[in-house]
Every structure is written in C-alpha cells, then in structure tokens.
Design goal:
This protein is mostly helical. The chain is 54% helix and 3% strand. The chain has a two-stranded antiparallel ribbon with strand order 1-2. A hairpin with a 5-residue loop joins strand 1 and strand 2. The chain binds zinc ion. Zinc ion binds next to helix 5 and helix 6.
Length: 147
C-alpha cells in the first residue's frame, strides 16, 4: 500500500512515516519510481513501533528492539525491561500513597510516617533513585494533607 493509506490505517500523519523511514525504524520497500510501498508486515511493525512509543521508548531504542540483526539488541531490551519495571514500582508507590492519603488523619505531611516515606522514595531525576529513609522532612516543609 502507498504511504498515504498506511498513515490512514495507523492514524498518523504521512510525514511521521517518512521520519520513521529516515530513522531506519520501519523502512518500506520502494516502487520502481521510488515511491514508498508498505506491506502488511511493515504495517504490523509500525503498530508495534507505536505501542513501544506509548510506553516511552525512543526511536533508536525501538529500532534496536525491532531489528534482530542489531548487535546491541539484547542490551537494549534488558535496559527497557529494567526501566519499565522501575516505572511500575513508582506507579505502585504512588497508588499506595494516594490510597493512604484519602484517609490520612495527620494534618501535616511531616507528622505522618507513611506520607514521609513516600516523599523520600521519589527519585530526584531519571535513573537516580533515593534510598527510602525514615528521616522526616524539615518542619518548614509546611504542606498539609487531609481536611
Ligand atoms: Zn499520611
């Protein structure tokens, strides 16, 4: 199928497919006149690409995962698994915190062990985890929770 039809079936703009082609992620065949021609298999790869993007993978990472010949493929997949599992842990922590905070009786975050534990478990930035400690926040943190 032509690029316009592939873009329609995926629900993305034509220039997005051209970009993914240029990046070497999903490279369509070419007609003798040089037009891009997508097969059903390539459309399927494009859907996998979008699914990978939706969980935060970059195009170079997706390229490595999609192409069996990529030498770094195993490492790239292992890195993604590690990242996704860390993300899941953070989501579970956030879920526990939110479930707790609905009924938290403390007027100050700093007076509640559960709230404090959650506050110090949040990573400062990507890839840099802070080990959870029971150390309370300074008294001037001043945030209130609950009614
Ligand atoms: Zn609390």
């Amino acid at each position: 199928m032509k690029i316009g039809e592939a873009a329609n079936r995926l629900g993305v703009a034509v220039h997005v497919l051209r970009h993914w082609d240029d990046m070497g992620v999903v490279v369509p065949d070419r007609t003798p006149s040089g037009q891009r021609e997508y097969s059903e298999e390539q459309l399927h790869r494009l859907r996998v690409l979008r699914a990978c993007q939706s969980v935060g993978m970059s195009l170079p990472e997706i390229r490595q995962v999609l192409h069996r010949a990529e030498p770094e493929r195993g490492d790239a997949i292992a890195r993604q698994l590690h990242r996704i599992r860390a993300q899941r842990t953070r989501l579970e922590d956030a879920e526990r915190f939110l479930v707790h905070v609905i009924n938290c009786e403390h007027t100050l975050l700093t007076r509640c062990d559960a709230c404090t534990r959650y506050a110090v478990s949040v990573p400062l930035r990507e890839g840099k985890h802070v080990t959870p400690r029971a150390t309370p926040l300074p008294p001037d943190a001043g945030e209130t929770f609950g009614p």
